[in-house]
Design a protein that fits this description.
The protein is mostly helical. The chain is 57% helix and 0% strand.
């Protein structure tokens, strides 16, 4: 169900119990931000920033949470970090609804144009 943030957080807590990862904190911070729990979102973002390793996926979700909070400067920093780290979630930033606010980041166009997707044709 769209907008069911309580169940989303419960599911995320279950996932984190099975596989603790700093990357999931960015997703939870996003959920908190869109549900209006701004102070909690900021606190969790601070934890996510401290716990995310340079090569971990999750920078895109941190960027999205900052964008929802209206902090486009931090969102841009994390969007660039996601790009530099080849964060696999960048594949979805142009189509996934939860990344809509991220598309308002000033550097978004430049970064999305810099993404080159290779594919095989099966030949």
């Amino acid at each position: 169900m769209v907008g069911d943030y309580t169940n989303a957080r419960a599911s995320l807590a279950t996932a984190r119990a099975l596989s603790p990862a700093a990357a999931s904190r960015g997703i939870e911070a996003y959920i908190l931000a869109v549900s209006g729990e701004v102070d909690d979102a900021r606190q969790l973002l601070a934890q996510a920033e401290a716990g995310l390793e340079a090569n971990d996926n999750g920078a895109t979700d941190i960027a999205a949470a900052y964008a929802v909070l209206g902090n486009m400067e931090r969102a841009e920093v994390w969007l660039k970090r996601a790009y530099d780290a080849h964060d696999r979630t960048l594949l979805y930033v142009t189509v996934e609804p939860r990344y809509a606010a991220l598309r308002e980041v000033p550097a978004f166009g430049q970064i999305s144009r810099g993404m080159v997707f290779s594919h095989t044709t099966g030949r």
